[in-house]
Design goal:
Elements (H helix, E strand, L loop, with lengths): L7 E4 L5 E4 L6 H21 L10 H12 L8 H36 L5 H6 L4 H19 L2 H12 L3 H26 L3 H8 L4 H35 L7 H10 L3 H29 L1
Antiparallel strand pairs: 1-2
Helix pairs in contact: 3-5, 3-7, 3-9, 5-7, 6-7, 7-9, 8-9, 9-11, 10-11
Length: 290
């Protein structure tokens, strides 16, 4: 049993003992940790030219107030709402199509990268050399795909296929296949694998072991992460619109260039509604699995 430190006693000249509060034993480690964090972060703040006080200068405050004041009321004319509806649908379509293509690439790579689906390791306790090489190649391919941001892929595909949503779909498909494959493999490796091992030992294929062994255990986490990535894909498709990939981003770029704050406000409201809808879809899917 750990004993609490006894309070220190000090003798005073009047013949009385005065109790002195014992100092916090974790004070010095905390202080050292805070100082170390500041020492590490300070050069990063300097080189990133982080100057938040610029926002509070008179010129910046005046420009911000003038622009924000134009947000009210949000644009709501019939012609603009029609254009906004078309752009919103295009944004959702780009995100959904890109994520679907990403799944087509991520699932085969997951089968190769997940250690829990290795037949040789389950049978002999050690993975064969050929299996290790294939698994390492799959992991490096996943690293390559996710290391390039979707915005960079969009810029490349805009040069190849031209302006339009096709560039956004391909950009999301490449980047998100790397992200999904990596996280799917980690989720499967960290989940309960007893049923998967039984299936593989009895001659089942990796795909059968995945669908009937691993997925029932890891389905809530996989669905939660997939819907989160769909939400990220919606935001990413908006950002890629600024480089010519269509959708809400392209409309917002035009409105920002014209300083049309009311139109920007309407688009921001749509962004919030889209993210809220994606979150609601995730909650419904998880509740059906529980």
């Amino acid at each position: 049993m750990n004993r609490l430190p006894l309070p220190a006693l000090k003798y005073c000249g009047s013949g009385m003992l005065v109790r002195i509060q014992h100092p916090d034993p974790a004070w010095y480690p905390r202080l050292f940790g805070i100082l170390t964090l500041l020492i590490v972060l300070w050069p990063m703040l300097v080189y990133s030219e982080f100057k938040p006080w610029i926002l509070f200068e008179a010129q910046s405050l005046a420009a911000s107030w003038h622009f924000l004041a134009s947000f009210a009321p949000p644009a709501h004319s019939g012609e603009f709402l029609h254009l906004l509806l078309v752009a919103t649908w295009q944004t959702v379509a780009v995100a959904t199509a890109g994520l679907t293509l990403a799944l087509l690439g991520a699932i085969p790579l997951t089968l190769l990268a997940a250690e829990s689906l290795s037949v040789s390791q389950i049978e002999t306790g050690r993975m064969r050399l050929a299996g290790r090489l294939v698994r390492q190649a799959a992991r490096w391919l996943l690293i390559l795909l996710r290391s390039v941001p979707e915005l960079v892929w969009a810029l490349l595909f805009v040069r190849i296929v031209g302006l339009g949503p096709t560039a956004g779909v391909l950009a999301i498909a490449l980047t998100y296949s790397g992200m999904l494959g990596k996280v799917y493999a980690e989720i499967l490796d960290s989940s309960e694998s007893q049923s998967t091992q039984v299936l593989l030992k009895n001659g089942a294929s990796r795909l059968a072991a995945l669908f009937y062994g691993s997925l029932p255990e890891a389905a809530p986490e996989l669905i939660s992460y997939t819907t989160y990535r769909w939400e990220c894909a919606i935001r990413g498709s908006v950002v890629m619109g600024f480089v010519g990939a269509g959708g809400l981003g392209q409309r917002m770029d035009e409105s920002l260039k014209m300083l049309a704050g009311s139109e920007v406000a309407s688009m921001l409201i749509i962004f919030v509604l889209l993210v809220g809808a994606a979150d609601r879809v995730s909650t419904l899917l998880r509740s059906r699995l529980d």
